[in-house]
Amino acid sequence: MDEEWIINKEYCQEALQKFSQEQKEVIVRMANDFEKSIEEQLADKIKILVFRPGQSPEVRAIPNTLKALQSVVGGYIEVIHLEDGLLLVCDEEGKLKGYPPNRRVGRDVICGTFFICRSDGDEFMSATDEDLKSLC
User: Fold this and answer.
1) Which of 31, 41, 79, 99 has the smallest C-beta neighbourhood within 10 Å, fewest atoms?
2) Pairing of strands 114-119, 45-51
3) Is the Cβ–Cβ distance between 60 and 78 less than 8 Å?
4) Distance CA 52, CA 94 (A)
5) How is the chain split among helix, strand and coil, in percent rounded to 5?
6) Which helix (H) or strand (E) holds 91?
7) Are 48 and 88 in contact, with CB atoms under 8 Å apart?
8) Rounded CA gap, 62 and 74, in Å?
9) Segments of the chain with pLDDT less than 50
């Protein structure tokens, strides 16, 4: 796939040489807008409630991507199913990494940052406004 992009990029650069500077700027702006639009569509955002050790919960909207989920918790994610269809997502190695204790969940203590969201079975989904009110 990278080779196709390089070939297409080179072809586009050659094609741009045939246009005036003003036309080039319009084409480049349109291409950048299109790329940004595609990225936004591919990275739908979800609303989560983030719990950091020693801090009040914070509502955030993040891209619904593995990279973004891992970024919030600081590592590989572990999903814990809670009541009412809620999910707790934390770093699966939080205790091993020596993260500070955060909250007690059942008989366990979650260490490090975690967040709460929902799931439709296959995908993570936003926490509802009711979830956010009841958990804050």
Assistant:
1) 41
2) antiparallel
3) no
4) 12
5) 40, 30, 30
6) strand 86-91
7) no
8) 14
9) 1-2, 5
- The rounded distance, in Å, linking the Cα atoms of 116 and 77 is 12
Distance of alpha carbon 67 from alpha carbon 111, whole angstroms: 20
pLDDT score, position 1: 43
Closest CA relative to residue 124, chosen from 97, 72, 88: 88
Q: Which amino acid is at 76?
A: Y
Strands (E), 69-107: 77-81, 86-91, 101-105
Question: For the chain, how far is it from start to end, CA to CA, in angstroms?
Answer: 45
For residue 92, how far is the Cα from the chain centroid? 17
Q: What tokens were used for 18? A: 């045939």
pLDDT for position 107: 93
Is the CB of residue 75 less than 8 Å from the CB of residue 92?
A: yes
Nearest to 95 by CA among 80, 115, 116, 74: 74
Instruction: Please tell me the distance from the alpha carbon of residue 22 to that of residue 44, in angstroms, as a whole number.
Output: 34
Q: Name residue 16's amino acid.
A: L
Distances (CA, A) of 3 to 6, 28, 42: 5, 21, 22
